[in-house]
Amino acid sequence: MNELEFLAGLRDLPLHPGARGLKDDCAVLEFGSETLILTHDMMAEGTHFEPEANMADVAWKLVAMNLSDLASKGAEPIGVLVGVSLGRDDTGFLSGLRDALSVYNVPLLGGDTIAATGASTFGITAVGRATHKPVPSRRGSKTGDAIYVTGIIGRAMLGFEGHKQHFEAFHRPQPMLSEGYALAPMVSAMMDISDGLLLDAWRMARASEVSYRLNPELIPVADSARMDDCLRWGDDYELLFTADPARELPVPATQIGKVELQANASLFLGGTALTEPGSLGYRHG
Amino acid sequence: MNELEFLAGLRDLPLHPGARGLKDDCAVLEFGSETLILTHDMMAEGTHFEPEANMADVAWKLVAMNLSDLASKGAEPIGVLVGVSLGRDDTGFLSGLRDALSVYNVPLLGGDTIAATGASTFGITAVGRATHKPVPSRRGSKTGDAIYVTGIIGRAMLGFEGHKQHFEAFHRPQPMLSEGYALAPMVSAMMDISDGLLLDAWRMARASEVSYRLNPELIPVADSARMDDCLRWGDDYELLFTADPARELPVPATQIGKVELQANASLFLGGTALTEPGSLGYRHG
C-alpha cells in the first residue's frame, strides 16, 4: 500500500472523535477541565534524511516538526515521548534532542529505544495543551477571508541544496509556537506547511469546502526565479491561515490570496485552476 | 550505544516530573482535573518479530504491549496514536490493529505512516486516564508485603516455540486492564512483566529499595521442567505486584514471595541471591 491507501485503511478503523477523522495535524480531546493536543510524526533514513545526515540535526527536526503541528493548533507543548532506533550516531542524536528540548523548553515524558537492523526510524509524540478554544482546525475558512502565510516559502529547499544563509531553515527549522498562540484566537483555519504551500493550501481549502485563490505576485518566496519549486518543495514549517481581512494581525504575515465560494477547483494560482494534487507538493506515497 | 547507555543519555535530558525519571512503565501527569497516563513502545522486524511473522499478530501485540503498560498503572485507555513503516503486509497489519482496538474498545487518535526502506518498525503511543490515585508505581513495596503475580509464567515462550495451547499467549497477548483497575487501589507497587519475571522483579525491588525473596515452589510456571527458562523468557504481560498480605485480592493471583528489608541483593530465589541482572531475563541492548 502507499501512504494514501494505508491512511484510508486507518480512517476505516474505530476513530476517537478527537482524531478529527485523521484529517487534521493533531488530535484534539477534552480531558479533565482542559483540552489535550496530541500528534505523532516519524522520520526514516532514506526517506526523510540521508544516511550521511547529521544526527543532531535529524533529532532537532523531529522535535521541530512535531512542535510545529502543536503550533498549528495554538497549543503549548507539555512534553514529548520519543521512539528511537539505535545504531546510527546515537550521541549526536541525543545532543540534537537536548538542543531542541532546551530551546523550546519542552521536557521529555518518556519513550522507547530499540535495537533495529537496517534503516533507522525515529518517532516523536508531542503532547500539548490548547491555549484557546475552539482549537483551530483545517476546516473553517469562510468566503471573503484573507489567506496568509508567515515567513518566506522555499527557504528549506535552498538550505537543503546548500545555500548557507538558508542552512538552518532546512536543518534546524523553528516551529512557530508563539505565532500559533497569538493567531489561535483570530484565525478561521490554520495548519503548518510541511508538504509544500500549494499542496497544503489545497488540503485546507478542501477541508473547509471553499476555494482558495492565491496571488502568485504576493507569495513571499526565497528565490523568485524558482517560484514553482518554492511553492511545492515543503519542509518550511511556516503557518498558513485564513482570517477576516478586517482584523489586525498579531504577528508578521503576508496576505497571499483570498477565500472564495467553492468552485470547480479547490485551489487557484492567479487564473489557473490547480486540480491535480499529485503535482502540488510532496505527496506521501 | 546499547539501550542501557542510550537510556542513561535520555535520563540526562530535561525530564518532565511526570516522566518518573524514565524508570517506570508510563508517564503520569496531572492535566486539567484528571491524571493522564502516557506510554510509547515500539517493535522492530528482526528484533521483536521475524520477517515472516503474521503482521496481524504483530499489530495486535503492539497494541497489547502498550495497553499492558497502562494496565500496570490501573489506567483506562482513551486511545492510541500509531506509527507505521509501510511495505510489509499492510493489509494484515490493519486487520490486526482493528482486532485489538475493537476487542479492547480503544479508538485510534492519530498517527503517521512512512515509506521506509529495510526492516520495518512500528510504534504506538497509548493514552490513558488514571482510575485511582495515587497511581501505582514500581516504587512502594514495603517490608512485609506479599509479592504476587497474575496468571502463569512462561506461556509466551511455549507459544513462541509452537505449543498450540499457548499460541495466543505469545501471538495475541492480553493486557490485564480489568485486573489493573481492580488492583490499583490496593497495591504498594505494580508493573507488567515484559522482560521476564526475575528481571522485572529485580527492577521493582530496586526501585522500591527493598529485597524480594521469591519462593520457587510457589511460582506458577507453564513448564516446571523448564523453570529457569519460564522465569527469564518474558513477553508474558502478566501483572507483578506487592500488597499487604492481610488484604483480600480482588482478582486471581498467586503469592510467590515476600518483601524483605533491603539486603546485599535485591532479589533472592529461595536461598540464592541473584545479583547479575544480565542473567535474569531479556536485557535490552
Give a brief rundown of this model.
The structure is a homodimer of 285-residue chains. Chain A has helices spanning 3-11, 55-72, 90-103, 155-161, 167-171, 177-183, 197-208, 227-232, and strands spanning 27-31, 34-44, 75-86, 108-115, 121-130, 146-149, 189-192, 211-214, 239-243, 254-260, 267-269, 272-274.
Question: Overview of this structure, please?
Answer:
Two copies of one chain form a homodimer. The first copy, chain A, has 285 residues and is of the alpha+beta class. Helix content of chain A is 27%, strand content 27%. Chain A contains eight helices and twelve strands. A seven-stranded mixed beta sheet of chain A has the order 7-9-6-10-8-11-12, with helices on both faces. A five-stranded mixed beta sheet of chain A has the order 1-2-5-3-4, covered by helices on one side. In chain A, a hairpin with a 2-residue loop joins strand 1 (27-31) and strand 2. Chain A is globular and about 50 Å long. Chain A starts with a helix and ends in an 11-residue tail after the last strand. The mean pLDDT of chain A is 95. Chains A and B meet through helix 1, strand 1, strand 2, strand 3 and helix 3 of A and helix 1, strand 1, strand 2, strand 3 and helix 3 of B.
Structural key phrases:
homodimer; 285 residues; alpha+beta; 60s Ribosomal Protein L30, Chain: A; Phosphoribosyl-aminoimidazole Synthetase, Chain A, domain 2; 2 domains; 5-stranded mixed beta sheet; 27% strand
